[in-house]
C-alpha cells in the first residue's frame, strides 16, 4: 500500500510502497478513513528542533490525527471488534505519526488502550481532527484554562485549534473575545458565538479577561496575552508558531499572572470532544483533501493559507 513518509528535515515527504500491517497480539489494525494534517508535521519537515518520539524509526509514515474502522483484532484483545468505528488518542510512547507509522496511508496498527469509540453520526473527518486539534483545544480551555460559565475568555487565533477552542468556551457559557490577524476569518467568530473579534488581543485590555488562550504562539502573541489578561489572570500557551518568546517578567510577576503550557490532552478529553461533536453544537470548519494532496496540504499549512482544519479523506 502507499504511504507518505518522512525521511529527513528539509526534505519533502516520499510516496513509498509499504507492507500491509497485521495485528500482533495486543493490537488491532485500523482501516484509515480520515487523517488530519497538523502544524507539527510542518515542524518536522522544516525545523530540526521538532523531534520524533523516542524509538521512532525513519522513514516514518506521518499523520497523527487518525479515525477509521477496525479491520483486524489481534490475540489478547477482548474489548474491540471488527467494524468498530474508532479514533486513536495520542497516549503512550508510540503514538501514530510520531512514534509509529501513522495516518498518511490506508491502514495502521494501534494498541487498544489508545482507542476511543466514535459516536454514531460523527463523521470520520471530524473524528480525526478531534484526536489532536479537538483534544488540545478542549484541554486548553476546560482543564488548563478552567473556563466555566461566566468566565471572560480571550482566544488568540481562529485557525484549526483556535476556532474549536473558542466554540468550546462559548458552549461552557463563557464570554469570548478573539484575536485574529486575518480579517477575512472574522466572520467565523460571529458564527461560533464570539462576542468581538480584533486583530490583536490587546484590543480587549479593558475587558478584564480572566483567561487568555494563545493558539498562535508567535512570541509577540504570548507577550501581549501577559500584558492584557487581568491581574491574577491566567494565560494558557498552546501555539508554537515561534519556539521563543520575549515576555515582560515584570508584568508576569507584578500582576501575578499564571502562565501554563499545554500539549495535547487525555482520552477523557477526546471522549468529551466526541460527545459535543455528536450533539451538533460543535461543528468545526474543516477543509477536506484527497490522499494525493497531503504534501500540498502541508505546504498550505506552512504558508498559512488554510481556513479551519485540513483533513485528508482516505476512504469512504
At the first level of CATH, the class of the largest domain is Alpha Beta
Classified in CATH, the superfamily of the largest domain is Medium-chain alcohol dehydrogenases, catalytic domain
Quaternary: single chain
The percent range for strand residues is 15-25%
Task: Please tell me about this protein's structure.
- This protein is of the alpha/beta class and 316 residues long.
- The chain has two domains: 145 residues, Quinone Oxidoreductase, Chain A, domain 1 (Alpha-Beta Complex); 129 residues, NAD(P)-binding Rossmann-like Domain (Rossmann fold, 3-Layer(aba) Sandwich).
- It is built from eight helices and 16 strands.
- Strands 3, 5, 6, 7, 8, 15 and 16 form a seven-stranded mixed sheet that branches.
- Strand 12, helix 5 and strand 13 form a beta-alpha-beta unit.
- Helix 2 crosses helix 3.
- The radius of gyration is 19 Å and the shape is globular.
- The protein starts with a strand and ends with a strand.
- GO terms for molecular function: alcohol dehydrogenase (NAD+) activity; zinc ion binding.
- Its cofactor is Zn(2+).
- It holds the Pfam family ADH_N.
- InterPro entries: ADH-like_C, ADH-like_N, ADH_Zn_CS, ER, GroES-like_sf, NAD(P)-bd_dom_sf.
Amino acid at each position: 500500500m502507499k504511504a507518505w513518509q518522512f525521511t529527513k528535515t528539509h526534505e519533502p515527504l516520499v510516496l513509498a510502497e509499504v507492507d500491509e500491517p497485521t495485528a500482533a497480539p495486543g493490537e488491532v489494525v485500523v482501516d484509515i478513513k480520515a487523517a488530519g494534517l497538523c502544524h507539527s508535521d510542518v515542524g518536522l519537515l522544516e525545523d530540526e528542533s521538532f523531534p520524533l518520539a523516542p524509538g521512532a524509526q525513519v522513514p516514518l509514515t506521518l499523520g497523527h490525527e487518525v479515525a477509521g474502522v477496525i479491520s483486524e483484532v489481534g490475540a489478547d484483545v477482548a474489548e474491540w471488534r471488527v467494524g468498530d468505528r474508532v479514533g486513536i488518542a495520542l497516549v503512550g510512547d508510540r503514538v501514530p505519526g510520531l512514534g509509529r507509522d501513522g495516518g498518511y496511508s490506508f491502514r495502521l496498527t494501534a494498541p487498544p488502550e489508545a482507542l476511543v469509540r466514535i459516536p454514531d453520526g460523527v463523521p470520520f473527518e471530524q473524528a480525526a481532527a478531534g484526536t489532536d486539534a479537538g483534544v488540545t483545544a478542549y484541554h486548553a480551555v476546560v482543564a488548563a484554562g478552567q473556563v466555566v460559565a461566566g468566565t471572560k475568555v480571550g482566544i488568540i487565533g481562529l485557525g484549526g485549534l483556535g476556532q474549536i477552542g473558542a466554540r468550546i468556551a462559548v458552549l461552557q457559557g463563557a464570554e469570548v473575545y478573539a484575536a485574529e490577524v486575518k480579517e477575512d476569518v472574522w466572520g467565523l467568530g460571529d458564527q461560533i458565538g464570539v462576542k468581538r473579534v480584533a486583530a490583536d488581543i490587546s484590543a480587549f485590555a479593558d475587558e478584564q479577561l480572566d483567561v487568555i488562550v494563545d493558539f498562535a504562539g508567535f512570541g509577540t502573541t504570548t507577550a501581549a496575552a501577559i500584558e492584557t489578561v487581568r491581574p491574577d489572570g491566567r494565560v494558557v500557551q498552546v501555539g508554537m508558531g515561534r519556539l521563543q518568546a520575549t515576555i515582560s517578567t515584570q508584568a508576569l510577576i507584578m500582576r501575578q499572572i499564571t502562565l501554563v503550557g499545554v500539549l495535547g490532552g487525555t482520552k477523557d478529553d477526546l471522549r468529551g470532544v466526541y460527545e459535543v461533536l455528536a450533539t451538533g453544537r460543535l461543528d468545526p470548519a474543516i477543509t477536506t483533501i484527497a490522499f494525493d494532496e497531503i504534501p500540498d496540504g502541508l505546504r498550505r499549512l506552512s504558508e498559512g493559507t488554510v481556513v479551519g482544519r485540513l483533513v485528508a479523506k482516505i476512504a469512504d
